[in-house]
Amino acid sequence: xxxxxxxxxxxxxxxxxxxxxxxxxxxxxxxxxxxxxxxxxxxxxxxxxxxxxxxxxxxxxxxxxxxxxxxxxxxxxxxxxxxxxxxxxxxxxxxxxxxxxxxxxxxxxxxxxxxxxxxxxxxxxxxxxxxxxxxxxxxxxxxxxxxxxxxxxxxxxxxxxxxxxxxxxxxxxxxxxxxxxxxxxxxxxxxxxxxxxxxxxxxxxxxxxxxxxxxxxxxxxxxxxxxxxxxxxxxxxxxxxxxxxxxxxxxxxxxxxxxxxxxxxxxxxxxxxxxxxxxxxxxxxxxxxxxxxxxx
Length: 296
Fold this sequence. Notes:
Blueprint: H1 3-15, H2 18-25, H3 29-43, E1 48-51, E2 54-57, H4 59-86, E3 91-97, H5 102-115, E4 119-125, H6 128-136, E5 142-146, H7 149-152, E6 158-173, E7 183-184, H8 186-189, E8 193-197, H9 202-213, E9 219-224, H10 227-234, E10 240-244, E11 253-258, E12 263-272, H11 279-294
Parallel strand pairs: 3-4, 3-5, 7-11, 8-9, 8-10
Antiparallel strand pairs: 1-2, 5-12, 6-10, 6-11, 6-12
Helix pairs in contact: 1-2, 1-3, 1-4, 2-3, 5-11
């Protein structure tokens, strides 16, 4: 049994006979007879009885009519859902990112939901490697991720597109001895304890590389998971943290650059390598590009 056979059978029933159904479908009534006979052969039962020029349903036929009508309703419902998705009136997208990109992503989400209020956005934060795995498995629709070169050497089933460069700066509380400085040397910083990210993370490696080039070793006294937690622990302390510049603009924080030069990380969008990308995801990616271009 296939969908075409069911539709032919339903049309014969709805038109009240083979002759009217043949005219409705622009085919011969003998072709309709063959199609209905194939159904009856498959189920080893009669589905229609001829009564003059009209037809009468058997018990088996009534079961097939219910099935055909239910399939038609499901097809119509699917069509409406697809149309709604294309019009971006309903749906949801799952975005993966790291905490340094949350403030940027907040601007994107706010603008996106003003335009498409019916689309639900779910944001998850994880390590870059874990997020790329989830994107390749298509459990995450889109990733906004820092791009360490080593990560891209792996064989991942993803596509990526450079988006913008995120600047990272050293941050202290305004009460810190360096709270009024604008540019310092790395040797000035090693006098104070550091709050940093866990070993193996891209930002931790970037920090260690920066000091290693100057043949210096920072005093790391605390390891935390998120920018928010680093920011909270800096308040009123003598510690130094590393944050994205866009987060380091709070009233209670002071950020500094070093004489050794600024620190930037490339941020990119990551997509599954799939033949079909949902319209909502495409529109969200477009909004990401607009916000990045505006410098937000």
